[in-house]
Design brief:
alpha/beta, Hypothetical Protein Yjia, Chain: A,domain 2, 13 strands, disordered C terminus
Length: about 375
């Protein structure tokens, strides 16, 4: 079997996050009653000495795994990985244990980033599973309060592909629209849906670009159209270190410069990068880029430039403790060519000097992420 065939057989994973009481379990139960999710496996991350959420989820016990260590345990992501591997082993036993997709429900207090990272980088997981959508629920009644006072709520919204505003049957239109505006300020590239009692059409969560860009040009257009781009915005929560901004770079980027920039960005700025999305012009060709903290997904080559777009690179950043100018000055790395014209073992002093200058840009840029904020991540 070829590598492409193995990739096509991977099981899609939907990660459901959102603050306490936002309606995650209600949404799961609604989805599990539909034909599209009738054979889904469920992994539930709970918090507290007494587990209760899994009792409320209406899924067969042989297709459910419960992680009851909650968000205060530093190795929840490892337990999620173990649960997924265990489900796959059981799946081989026959149709009774078979499943065609996985729903992972995170604790309302949990940081979803470590789980996202392991779904994108662990070789044992990535050969079997494919992260398709990160879904964050926002409470239509209390969501604005959560964003103002709970850093976890902000981060859950920031890393999402899809944000579902719940309880729209209970909250008035003004409150919902205000919440929607705050969520757009935090994560302008995310799709927003609205739901009452968890009622959504399954295709609303199964379609769309998600983390892996299946239909490259169309998917890129879906989350990088002009309306989705943010101008620099004021923080939408009590965490004044959270900011959203868009940067453009009009020249072509060299391939060595692109690789160098991505690696240095993850290494030196990863802790403060909540989410990055964009289309970049690498030596005349368009590539879609996505990143969550230190994990930068493999750039996806696009078949063509999205219709109506110029060929400048544009990147949307959602950051904590990093401002736009801090990132913009590192774009100098885009011009780095690694001395490709000289194919020999001699180090070109000018090239090395340029490399050292670029490294210094990443080392000396003012990073305002505090120690406590890093610990929270």
């Amino acid at each position: 079997m070829s590598a492409l065939q193995r990739q096509a057989l991977r099981i899609p994973v939907l990660l459901v996050t959102g603050f306490l009481g936002s309606g995650k379990t209600t949404l799961l139960n609604r989805l599990l009653k539909t034909r599209a999710f009738a054979r889904a496996a469920v992994v539930i991350n709970e918090f507290g000495q007494v587990s209760i959420d899994h009792v409320l989820v209406e899924a067969p016990r042989y297709r459910m795994r419960v992680i009851d260590s909650g968000c205060l345990c530093g190795h929840v992501h490892d337990e999620v990985a173990s649960s997924l591997l265990d489900l796959h082993v059981k799946r081989r036993r026959g149709a009774h244990y078979d499943f065609d997709r996985v729903l992972i429900e995170m604790s309302g207090l949990a940081d979803p980033v470590p789980v996202i990272q392991i779904l994108l980088t662990d070789p044992h997981i990535t050969q079997l599973y494919e992260l398709k959508n990160v879904i964050a629920l926002a409470d239509g009644l209390q969501g604005a309060t959560h964003l103002a006072g709970q850093p976890e709520s902000v981060k859950q919204a920031a890393v999402a592909d899809t944000i579902v505003i719940s309880k729209t049957d209970l909250a008035d239109c003004v409150r919902i629209d205000t919440l929607a505006s705050k969520l757009s300020a935090i994560n302008p590239g995310a799709r927003q849906l609205r739901a009452a009692r968890g009622e959504l059409r399954p295709e609303q969560l199964l379609q769309g670009p998600g983390f892996q860009l299946a239909d490259r040009s169309d998917a890129a257009r879906a989350w990088l159209n002009d309306a989705s781009y943010a101008a620099t915005t004021a923080p939408a929560s009590a965490d004044n270190a959270i900011s959203t901004f868009t940067l453009a770079y009009r020249e072509e980027i060299t391939l060595p410069g692109f690789v160098l920039w991505m690696n240095l960005l993850a290494g030196f700025r990863g802790a403060g990068l909540l989410r990055v999305k964009g289309i970049v012009n690498v030596e005349g060709k368009p590539y879609a880029v996505q990143a969550v903290q230190t994990v930068i997904s493999e750039p996806e080559p696009l078949a063509s430039w999205p219709e109506g777009r110029d060929r400048s690179s544009r990147l949307v950043f959602i950051t904590r403790g990093i401002d736009a100018e801090d990132i913009r000055r590192t774009f100098a790395a885009f011009r780095f060519d690694a001395g490709r014209a000289a194919r020999n073992m001699t180090i070109n002093p000018d090239t090395y000097g340029r490399f050292a200058e670029i490294m210094q840009l990443f080392r000396t840029s003012p990073v305002r992420t505090t120690t406590s904020e890093l610990e929270r991540q």
